[in-house]
Design a protein that fits this description.
This protein is an alpha+beta fold. About 20% of the residues lie in helices and about 35% in strands. It has 2 domains: about 130 residues, Phosphorylase Kinase, domain 1 (2-Layer Sandwich); about 30 residues, no CATH class. It contains 4 helices and 8 strands, in the order H-E-H-E-E-E-H-E-E-E-E-H. It is globular and about 55 Å long. Keywords: ATP-binding, Nucleotide-binding.
Length: about 170
């Protein structure tokens, strides 16, 4: 990571101050902390995103690069960011910020120069070193019971029983 990039790095502040609010992050910062989205820092991928480790001077964050932004309506992205900014709970991964970058690019297409917008969208979260939740939830009673606000709510009867009976059988 470029040492100059961390001088005014909002992510550095957020890791040391839990009262800091999620914020708009510059693409240059995300490129810097992920070594330009290096394959060496890739920690996961799925149908709609690739996740990278973002290396800071005082810790690590997870940078989620959305891959299918051509059909992601801008309003939906704004709604997602708004929802993530409202969530604050000790059992939910902390949302650190977002980046919405659109650039006009020129490409050669069938011998002609064509200008189009290139959209890049990113979400940044605290890094959990123990990996994804799916590695810890298992059993025949685990199921997805609802999709609400484009989020899957995972229900585990074991967790539910323990939580609501405070461990009493």
């Amino acid at each position: 990571m470029d040492p100059e990039a961390s001088v005014c790095n909002p992510l550095e502040r957020m890791l040391t101050d839990e009262t800091e609010e999620p914020t708009n992050l510059p693409l240059s910062l995300l490129k810097s902390i992920t070594n330009n989205f290096s394959d060496d820092l890739q920690i996961g991928s799925g149908g709609f995103a690739v996740v990278y480790k973002g290396l800071l001077q005082n810790g690590i964050v997870a940078v989620k690069k959305l891959t299918q932004t051509f059909d992601l309506h801008e309003t939906k992205f704004h709604q997602e960011v708004d929802s993530l900014m409202r969530v604050c709970h000790k059992n939910i991964v902390r949302f650190m910020g977002y980046c919405s970058d659109t650039q006009g690019k020129v490409w050669k297409l069938q011998g002609k120069n064509v200008m189009a917008e290139e959209r890049q969208r990113f979400l940044c979260f605290e890094f959990l070193p123990e990996g994804s939740l799916d590695k810890y939830i298992s059993g025949k009673f685990t199921s997805v019971i609802s999709v609400w606000n484009t989020k899957s709510i995972v229900y585990s009867s074991t967790t539910y029983t323990y939580t609501h009976t405070k461990g009493k059988k």
